[in-house]
Amino acid sequence: MTVTEYNTCVKNYADAVYRFIYKNIRDEDKAHDIVQDTFEKMWLKVNDIIAEKAKSYLFTAAYNTMIDSIRKDKHKATYEDHYDDYLTTNNSFNDYKKIINLALGKLNEIQRSVIMLRDYEGYSYEEIGKITGLNESQVKVYIYRARLNLKEYLGALENVV
Amino acid sequence: MEININNYEEFIVDFLDGKLDDNAVAKLFVFLDQNPAIKAEFDLFNSNQPSLIAEPMAFDFSGLLKKEKVNVADYSDKLIALLENDLTPEETKSLETEIKTYPELAAEFELFKKTKLVPENDIVFANKPILTKKGGFTIFPLFARYSAVAAVFIAVVMGVYFFTNNNGEQLADKVDTTIAKSKQDSITDIIKTKNNIPKQLQKENEKEMLAFGGVNAASMQKQNKRALPSTNKNLQNKKPIKENPLNGGNNQSIAPSNNAPKKPVAENGGGNYNLANIDLPKNNNQTTIQPKVDESPVLTNNEPVITANTFNKDKNLDYRDYVKEQLKIAAQSEVITENKPANSNENISLAESIGLNVLSLFNKVSNRDVKVKKTYNNDGEIEKVRFVASGW
Fold first, then answer.
1. I need a surface site. Which of A22, A29, A124, B83 has the fewest CB within 10 A?
2. Residue-level pLDDT at B319
3. Given phi > 0 = left and psi -120 to 50 = alpha, else beta, which region is B380?
4. What pLDDT does B63 receive?
């Protein structure tokens, strides 16, 4: 991959990677750092990476970096606490984005990641499997469970409203 | 087929079922007339013919087969699969029909549709310029940067020490000057020894040889051989030889055995001298030569005593051979040491300079004596440099 191709990747995928990470950990600074680390890793291997697979490499590296960060900081509890607080203080449940974000906060890391890769980036089961290190069947199961959990959460909220 | 006693049952059953034609019926009745016992049996069947009558159904099962409501939980898999486009066209069509049929299924599917995430394009990475790169250079890993910084720092410290503290080059010059001086002194002493030994041999006769060997002089004279002393009492007076800390390497140690003023052997008048401890190298291929001259007090009997404590007794060499060997060693020393200073004293490499400065620093910090030992090969090139700190 050339420097130009690398810079094209920055232009095309930096937002998507940042969105993916930010929606997962809900921490702008950490998401910013993870995106920077991810692109730095990519730059170090810029000569070894094929341009066509750059996006996949970026998401894989970002996902792994994020998982390491979460495990290191035990960020999961913070994330859920944050959204529990948000849930109790913010009553704008009619806002679909916020509701779905709250629902996402209830998912575990792997379910959240696979469903975001599926819906945001349109990856296939196989591609998601490569990024997350799971096989295709596992990806299917995680997506199924994620949708079921989201549906139950949304259904419960609709009933409350 | 004719009716007989073996097949009449078939005819009777067919008759009861009405399957017999007229000809067969005629034959059956003729047979029954001929066999009254079978006719009695036939009459019994014909009068009480068994039959099953269908009774009307009392329970209506049709209600169970009607689907008034669907269990939506059973459709979760299919609805999610539909959402993910995982169903075949036939399955999709069938499920869509069911969704249209049952409102609760449609509501469930709408709920599942809401789980489809929509990208939030307002979330962007604001600082993209820091990620972009320009060609022509490579990013080094963090540990490499730290290593480089550490290396530069050490180099700067060494450089500052070099140029701010004159001890650096002065020490190097001092060390090499001392080395050269030590070498020159050793050469001078060896040459003097070499020049004096033959004279003494010419002046002294068998009496000296007696003192030297303590063996039968007459036999020695006849055989023109000199025996080595069986015991060397002068060795009892020998004191430990101290090596010059800055002996210039070469493993050449020239040190007086006592604190008395050093007297050249030639100044002893030829009669009062004690040439001892002339160490011969065991292997002439080695460039390390350690001639040691020990000038002990003169003996009371005014007879010169020449001993060679490291002389190879096993070889039982003649004293003349011994002297020849001594001269040969001295000559080799001259040849070797003539070549050394030119290489070692004039051209100080950067590594040597750094090493000497490190030694100087170490000496100041630890307050220990530090020695530089160089080993030269036959070509006069430095083969090995060793830094030895006392007590370590």
1. A29
2. 66
3. left
4. 59
| Amino acid making up residue B130 | I
Helices A28-44 + A3-25 axis angle, to 10: 150
Least confident of A18-22, A148-152, B139-143, B171-175: B171-175
B146 or B188, higher pLDDT: B146
Would you state the structure tokens that stand for residue B360, as one six-digit string?
């100087």
Average pLDDT on A117-137 reads 91
What is the reported pLDDT for B390?
66
A15 to B120: CB separation less than 8 angstroms, yes or no: no
Chain B, 284 to 313: residues with Cβ < 8 Å from chain A are none
* Contact (CB, 8 A) for B276 and B299: no
Residue to test with chain B: of A147, A150, A154, A158, most B Cβ within 10 A: A147
How many Å apart are CA B136 and CA B129, to the nearest integer?
A: 17
B277: left (phi over 0), alpha (psi -120 to 50) or beta: left
Q: Render A38-79 in DSSP notation, one character per residue.
A: HHHHHHHTTTTS-GGGHHHHHHHHHHHHHHHHHHHHTHHHHH
